[in-house]
Design a protein that fits this description.
The protein is mostly helical. The chain contains four helices and two strands; from the N terminus they run H-H-E-E-H-H. A two-stranded antiparallel ribbon has the order 1-2. Helix 1 crosses helix 2 and helix 2 (19-66) runs antiparallel to helix 3 (96-113). The longest helix is centred in the first third of the chain and has 48 residues, at 19-66. The protein starts with 7 loop residues before the first helix and ends in a 30-residue tail after the last helix.
Length: 170
């Protein structure tokens, strides 16, 4: 019922419970969801980090091999009825594609672990004025009705961490 957006007082009436009981049960449900989601996210991160570790090890092995001297052999005719094997060694300086792969692994690991600087989101009143004021009032904890068109508001720009969980807690 709660997930169908039925108000708490109606849930209480229909189930013949007190509003306080319904509120407490919903609060417990939220805590359960947070714990479950946190576990699932940590497990998913662990798996992805392990896959990245394997991939990075392979890139490092490829990089080391790409720096070794290259050997090539070829048979050549030295004269009538005789062949000679030609050996050629050439210096190699490493294939930079392996370094790009390593850097990609490092970047992805930092992204998963949240080590990158927070990304800022610009609050843009591109939809409607009312939607923008609703968002602004939520952020600034202003009561409804404040910030009507024509009313002057002093707004300080804010930085929002795009990686943060912005799910309402109630």
């Amino acid at each position: 019922m709660y997930l169908r957006m039925i108000p708490q007082y109606k849930i209480a009436e229909e189930l013949n419970l007190s509003p306080a009981t319904v509120s407490r049960d919903i609060r417990e449900l939220h805590e359960e969801w947070k714990t479950s989601r946190l576990y699932d996210m940590n497990e998913a991160k662990r798996k992805e980090l392990a896959r990245i570790d394997v991939l990075e090890r392979q890139y490092w092995e490829g990089w080391e091999l790409s720096k070794q001297k290259a050997h090539s052999e070829a048979d050549a005719i030295a004269g009538p009825g005789s062949t000679v094997t030609l050996h050629q060694k050439r210096e190699q300086f490493g294939d930079p594609r392996y370094l790009n792969g390593i850097m990609s692994c490092i970047n992805k690991r930092c992204e998963i672990l949240g080590l990158n600087a927070p990304k800022s989101l610009e609050l843009n009143p591109g939809k409607t004025w009312a939607q923008f004021i609703g968002v602004q009032n939520n952020i600034m904890n202003l009561p409804p009705g404040h910030g009507a068109p024509g009313e002057e508001i002093n707004v300080t720009p804010i930085l929002i961490d795009a990686t943060a969980d912005l799910t309402p807690t109630e």
